[in-house]
Amino acid sequence: MSGLVDRIYECAFVPELWPEILAELVQIDGALSGWLCISNGSVIRWSASSQEARHDLRPLMESGWIPRSERFNRLLRAKQTGFIPDSILYTPEEMRDDPAYRDMLYPRGMGWASATAIALPTGDDMVIALERAYDQGSAPPAVLKTLNELHAHLARASLVAARMQLERARAATQALALLGIPALVFSDNGKILAANPLIEALSGFISWRAKDRIALTDVRADALLRDAIATVDQDEAPSVRSFPVRNVSSTMIAHVVPIRGSARDTFSRCAAMLMLTPVTRPEAPSVDLIRSLFDLTPTEARIARGLAAGQTVKAIATESGTSTNTVRWHVKVVLSKIGYSRQSDVVALLNGLRPPGCANDP
Fold it and tell me: Is the distance from CB of 47 to CB of 35 less than 8 angstroms?
């Protein structure tokens, strides 16, 4: 048992080990499979005890069926510490009539579980369920006793993992503050997890709302931010999304940078970082900088830089060997992507983006 406890705490630092822990809990319980789900009403992260269990659970998790089920929510509402059997949550008649049992568990030969819910410091809930065969019935008291001897360790490990992710988010924003960059980290539903003092001081650009939310004071920019939050986890979404944020006297550029891959683990709610950089220098930026900031194609970026450098549409067309109508069409696309309606506004914006110490493109 001591070796298992050590591995449980190791999961706080190496979340890839959770399937192994779930597999060992399955063996203790005599269950067919086990799963772990982090939820705030929808699935944030989940894991399973085996590849077969993961394959079976994937459509139910990805559709949100499991966290919406009555069985899942009765467990949350019970607020009981430790692993409990279904018989604590349901009468036999209720189990027969519940869709979770009737449509999902009984057809798969299951119908009893030992499960627990743990509240995390992120405001989310973690549920661990060990699914037993229907003909086995509930786990006997001795098995539940063994599982509950491990419960405190599971809870501590999950709390440490969640807290570490929040601290990493804070450390990232503070590191950017040292570079003079206002920044914050938000979750997949837009909740602010960490923010540095520089961005907290930007009251002219950011309005702080209830429930750890923000809004940009520039209505058009705020709509772009809302869209970026809604699509941050979509594969087709741009890797970085940048757009201008204006107030009465100045303009900044907002950069929404998704947090993906190894930077996110089972307990991480960090979905993306928002950074704001000032528009200050009256010089045309490089084509590469324009392209990366505003998700433009190479052609669009060259045309945008030409405008910033003072070239006319006719001059850009002559230089590139294309028609003026083609250049005008690209200009319209650039305006749409950057979020302006007037060409003069784009020129003013781009002329302030050039990083210090860089030479102009030829």
Answer: yes
Q: Tens digits of per-residue pLDDT, 128-142?
A: 999 999 888 889 999
Q: Is the Cβ–Cβ distance between 155 and 200 less than 8 Å?
A: no
Higher pLDDT, 213 or 1: 213
Nearest-CA neighbor of 161 among 23, 273, 15, 47?
15
Show the tokens assigned to 170: 């804070």
Nearest to 301, CA basis, from 312, 288, 311, 310:
288
Residue 145 CA, distance from chain mean position: 36
Token reading at 89: 């949550």
CB hemisphere CA count around 262 (13 angstroms): 2
> Do 159 and 38 meet the contact criterion of CB atoms below 8 Å apart?
no
pLDDT at res. 180: 77
Are residues 270 and 187 in contact, defined by beta-carbon separation less than 8 angstroms? yes
Q: Does the pLDDT of residue 48 top 80, yes or no?
A: yes
pLDDT tier at 147 (50, 70, 90 boundaries)? very high
The strand pairing partners of 275, in sequence order, are 183, 255
| DSSP helix, strand, coil percent of the chain (3-state; round to 5) | 50, 20, 30
